[in-house]
Design a protein that fits this description.
367 residues; alpha/beta; 6 strands; globular
Length: 367
């Protein structure tokens, strides 16, 4: 109730978030715990409110600014002379974090019924210790539980793992393709979490799709719905389960899948598909998709989405049949409506608002 009243003013909500954090941090130290514990409880309680996203957005700048001083304080406590003796231990711990953490996550994800690719990509995101580990060590030094040498060791591990995991995530797809033959042990024979709603295969008796759409955001969902209403057999793939469930509730064929998962193409009935559409405006993903389709012998229509003329030229180079410009196409569509309304209205009269879309040309006619 308190945050609901405060949230009526965005400035007051920001001040309340800062004051609440300082208050609980001070209370934590006052009651014999620590400022970090109090601040953690403050963040935990604020995150449980419906206004956490607004608070997080407005506090991000303040948080990043104060983090600078936190790391300056840590650096001032770091004895560079002791780092040389910690290199061996730092490499050992870094190897465990970079390899062990992903393996643990993959085992858990496999037991839960996810595919090996899902487990592998999720595991890469935890292949680091992050700055939160340094916060704990700094608390331990302040309380006298560990010595200053531990800070140097954890800092080295943080530098190694944060840097390495960044490139592991950046090159996750090539890394996955290299390691895929050995990752089958982390996947069930039938991944229950991704089989019913994510399997690209179609049930027996179900009509094969004529159009397959990757990416069901606002643009992709609208495209899926319009084609479905026009009687086109269309199937859509997205990696957001909430989007999938919402579209399925409306009677559309939406399935869990990722355009970056090139092995998903093997489950599609490419022999009957006439068009494959990607609404993801990411040139790298679309290029990989087009190359995989060409390798699979798919020689029918392919449409990709772009946001710039440079990306459009690149997609045409790699073989896209049709390049979609959502913003440009929407502007052309609106311009046609406005021009028709202005030209058909008598001079000096109010411009009527068209009730339908007269004279709208197809995309091919406009091209």
């Amino acid at each position: 109730p308190l945050t609901a009243r405060i949230a009526r003013s965005q400035e007051l909500l920001l001040l309340f978030g800062i004051a609440w954090g300082v208050l609980l941090a001070a209370a934590g130290e006052w009651f014999g715990f620590s400022r970090e514990v109090g601040a953690f409880l403050a963040g935990f309680s604020l995150a449980s409110t419906p206004y956490r996203d607004a608070l997080s957005t407005r506090l991000a700048t303040v948080r990043d600014f104060l983090l600078l001083f936190f790391f300056i304080d840590l650096g001032s406590k770091l004895d560079l002379a002791t780092l040389g003796g910690e290199i061996g231990a730092a490499l050992a711990f870094s190897a465990f974090v970079l390899v062990g953490n992903p393996l643990i996550v993959m085992v858990i994800m496999g037991v839960m019924g996810y595919r090996k690719r899902t487990g592998f990509l999720a595991g890469l995101t935890v292949a680091q210790i992050s700055e939160f580990s340094i916060v704990f060590v700094a608390m331990g030094i302040g309380l006298g539980h560990v010595d200053a040498a531990a800070l140097g060791l954890v800092t080295l591990v943080g530098l190694i793992t944060i840097t390495s995991s960044t490139y592991m995530i950046l090159y996750s797809e090539p890394l996955y393709r290299r390691l895929e033959p050995w990752l089958g042990v982390f996947e069930r024979a039938r991944p229950t979490r991704e089989s019913g709603e994510s399997d690209g295969g179609h049930a027996s008796g179900a009509a094969a799709p004529e159009v397959v759409i990757f990416g069901l955001g606002r643009y992709g969902s609208r495209l899926l719905g319009d084609l479905h209403q026009r009687g086109v057999r269309v199937t859509g793939f997205d990696f957001d389960p909430e989007v999938i469930r919402a579209l399925q509730a409306r009677g559309m064929d939406a399935r869990f899948g990722d355009a970056e998962d090139l092995h998903l193409l093997e489950t599609l009935p490419l022999a009957t598909v006439r068009w494959i559409v990607s609404t993801l405006p990411v040139p790298e993903i679309n290029a990989a998709l087009l190359q995989s389709l060409a390798a699979a012998g798919f020689d029918r229509g392919t449409a990709v989405t772009v946001h710039s003329d440079e990306d459009a030229a690149a997609m045409e180079t790699v073989g896209a049949t049709l390049v979609l410009h959502p913003y440009r196409d929407a502007a052309d569509f609106a311009a046609e409506h406005l021009a028709d309304a202005v030209q058909t209205a008598p001079a000096g009269a109010a411009v009527p608002v068209p009730a339908s879309a007269p004279g709208v040309r197809t995309l091919e006619e406009r091209r």
